[in-house]
Write a structure and sequence with these properties.
Radius of gyration: 25 Å
Largest sheet: 6 strands, parallel
Number of domains: 2
CATH topology of the largest domain: Rossmann fold
Distance between the termini: 63 Å
Structural class: alpha/beta
Low-confidence stretches: none
Order of helices and strands: HHEHEHEHEEHEHEHEHEHEHEE
Strand content: 15-25%
Strand order of the largest sheet: 2-1-3-4-5-11
Helix content: 40-55%
CATH superfamily of the largest domain: Response regulator
CATH architecture of the largest domain: 3-Layer(aba) Sandwich
Number of strands: 12
Mean pLDDT: 94
Length: 329
């Protein structure tokens, strides 16, 4: 009986201990974190909501921030630079806590970004930066992007031959900085001749027209470097219609949506698509915003970058799970 009583008393003590400790220890950060996000407003200014990139980023922002009590508002300029500038100006008057902005080029929003942060609005630039720095940039290291694409094309051409480059908007970060990476690689490969370097303005029909002309002038072309997979559907179509799919190595880049990325590589239309995974970028965006708000960061206190991991997608890995994502996801 004495041993039984001791066992019962010991068990009761052990059961009571966690409850006693729970009352004595308070989680020190939770309440402040919840309060720092609840009721805040994050505005999203994409290039256009018609893009898979914007859809993916917004989906991530909503799933990560709305459950924390953050209000998400969207201003869609639908590829109009003028409408984007007007929307940005209107947001300055509305004074959201954070503006996530996808710059159309390196200059258009520069003064507005500076003005917003001067008014106390945190600016997070996504994927294409302005010349004006802000509290945070989340997106691609475009110099690295250009270097990866160029090296793949150089290798495919055996170190010598003619290549063409199809840029987007020449004043966009994704064009200007990608060219820096390409030029760095080509500087060490004198056997590669760039026979065409033109802008298609992110439009697939222009990319197709440019590539058709280049192929007529240079039927011995060995490679094309394109700057966006949605645009480069036109590039791939021109190569295919010329019957040169086996000869011309087509390299592009994009956000990793299955149809535009992995499916096009699997079909042979693209030989390389360097993917910056949009769901991961969206998660990085949301995490950056959570940190900035919970830490009480004010505009001007910091300026940082979070570069996205790049995945070269070829026929070897295009079918692997998790390399690309779908709109349904």
């Amino acid at each position: 009986m004495k041993n039984l009583m001791k066992s019962l008393l010991l068990g009761a003590t052990l059961l009571a201990a966690p409850h006693a400790m729970a009352k004595e220890i308070t989680e020190p950060f939770r309440e402040g974190y919840i309060a720092s996000l609840k009721g805040k407003t994050v505005a999203f200014l994409p290039g256009a909501m018609a893009m898979d990139l914007a859809i993916g980023w917004l989906g991530a922002l909503k799933s990560e921030l709305e459950p924390q009590g953050v209000n998400i508002i969207v201003r869609d300029p639908n590829f109009s630079v003028q409408a984007g500038a007007q929307a940005f100006t209107q947001l300055l008057a509305e004074k959201p806590d954070v503006i996530v902005v996808h710059n159309p080029d390196v200059t258009t929003y520069a003064k507005l970004i500076k003005q917003a942060e001067a008014q106390g609005i945190l600016i997070v630039q996504v994927n294409m930066s302005s010349l004006t720095p802000s509290t945070a940039y989340v997106g691609v290291d475009w110099v690295e992007m250009g270097a990866i694409q160029a090296q793949h094309v150089v290798d495919a051409c055996g170190g010598k031959g003619k290549i063409a480059i199809v840029q987007g908007d020449l004043t966009a970060a994704a064009s200007a900085y990608t060219m820096s990476g390409i030029n760095a690689v080509l500087a060490n490969n004198a056997g590669i001749e760039v026979v065409s370097n033109q802008s298609a303005g992110w439009q697939s029909d222009k990319a197709k027209s440019i590539t058709q002309t280049v192929l007529k002038q240079h039927p011995d072309l060995c490679g094309v470097i394109g700057f966006w997979d949605n645009m480069d559907t036109g590039t791939a179509a021109a190569v295919d219609e010329a019957g040169l799919r086996d000869q011309v190595y087509v390299a592009t880049s994009g956000g990793g949506e299955t149809r535009a990325a992995c499916d096009m590589v699997s079909s042979g239309a693209y030989d390389l698509n360097v993917v910056y995974n949009v769901p991961n970028q969206g998660a990085n965006l949301a995490s950056t915003i959570k940190y900035l708000l919970s830490a009480g960061i004010k505009p001007g206190q910091i300026s940082g970058q979070m570069y996205t991991t790049l995945t070269p997608v070829t026929s070897a890995n295009a079918g692997d799970e998790g390399v690309c994502w779908t709109m349904k996801q």
